[in-house]
Write a structure and sequence with these properties.
Two copies of one chain form a homodimer.
Chain A: H1 2-13, H2 24-32, H3 37-46, H4 51-57, H5 62-74, E1 78-82, E2 90-94, H6 96-99, H7 102-116, E3 124-128, E4 153-157, H8 169-173, E5 178-179
Antiparallel strand pairs in A: 1-2, 3-4, 4-5
């Protein structure tokens, strides 16, 4: 009975909608509130485009990653198109609607850095690419007095990666300054990593 | 076996940490990424303080609500103290650390309003209380050029509530302008609604 109860609980009580919450935050969470979804969008902003690269950088199970990518395409935040370099595979790219998520994602990330990171040193700093000014906690460039489009933001590594730091190709690609939404170098992962239509 | 697999999946694959993601966003999501948690914080910013009032306004099951409140207390975003008006019950109040979540929560809410609300009209507008200027999408007052503390933000209803709009006491309390973090009127709910030490 405990098994049945747990399953019912997860399938019903913890479903992904908030039907009786007539609130913009609830609508947002219905789209990006599922586990892994915001981390996938983070990687997409970093310039990750291929299933294999998301898979190499995240630790999400293939089935979860595939489902979340499909949901993000369905919500219009990512677009999926054939990969010209690999028959049968796909590229996922951030849409204009997806780009509008940037200030909220950045604000949440900054909050995590300031309040939830247990005194860890910042690992990355985000700068307005055209002037080099670090963004404030709300993704705004104080010098130019704008919230730059993510294509005008560059992520810079801070310090030397510690022992145990990730060495997957996405992590390695971010060890030098990199402009958001510029494709990262491709990961060399076996072709069969990408599920059908993932 | 399907039952067992689903249970294992939810308990292990979808656990609430992201152990190998050395990233501020992952740390943030470990604290506020669980289902219902951000909606509880939203209500706490609105001025909800009692378990019964969270329960009346949210549709979260009692056990989930109790667990999330306890986790938020553990993370230092809420503080729980005895309710002076009701022996054995408690008040939950947003801490200084909790207040730092406001710009990120507001940015996510605004994104939901602009991108995820399916053309629904905005139901609330948030203004800098001292000047009346609506906040921009990053929680900033453009007139005063600051991101106001949430205690300096007032939420104003927009339009007339439609048929089927919520009529719980929290929703009713928000039908007139209300300053964030100012306690809302108490809900008249049976005392036994609050679980032990919830």
């Amino acid at each position: 009975m405990d098994l049945l109860r747990s399953l019912w609980f997860h399938c019903n009580v913890l479903r992904s909608t908030y039907e009786n919450q007539d609130c913009s935050l609830a609508r947002a969470l219905e789209i990006i509130g599922e586990r892994w979804t915001l981390l996938i969008m983070r990687d997409a902003f970093y310039g990750v485009r291929r299933f294999n690269d998301f898979f190499a950088h995240l630790d999400a199970p293939r089935s979860v990653l595939s489902g979340r990518l499909t949901a993000l395409v369905g919500a219009g935040l990512l677009v999926r198109r054939p990969d010209p370099d690999h028959g049968g595979r796909h590229l996922y790219e951030v849409t204009d609607k997806g780009k509008t998520l940037w200030p909220a994602l950045y604000a949440l990330r900054t909050w995590g850095e300031q309040q939830a990171a247990d005194d860890r040193e910042p690992r990355r700093v985000f700068k307005h690419a055209c002037c080099g000014e670090p963004l404030d906690p709300t993704a705004r460039c104080g010098r130019c007095e704008v919230v730059p489009d993510p294509t005008d933001v560059a992520v810079h590594p801070v310090g030397v990666p510690g022992e145990g730091a990730r060495t997957d190709p996405v992590a390695m690609g971010l060890r030098k300054p990199h402009r958001l939404l510029t494709p990262l170098p491709e990961t060399d992962v076996a072709p069969e990593t990408e599920p059908a239509f993932a």
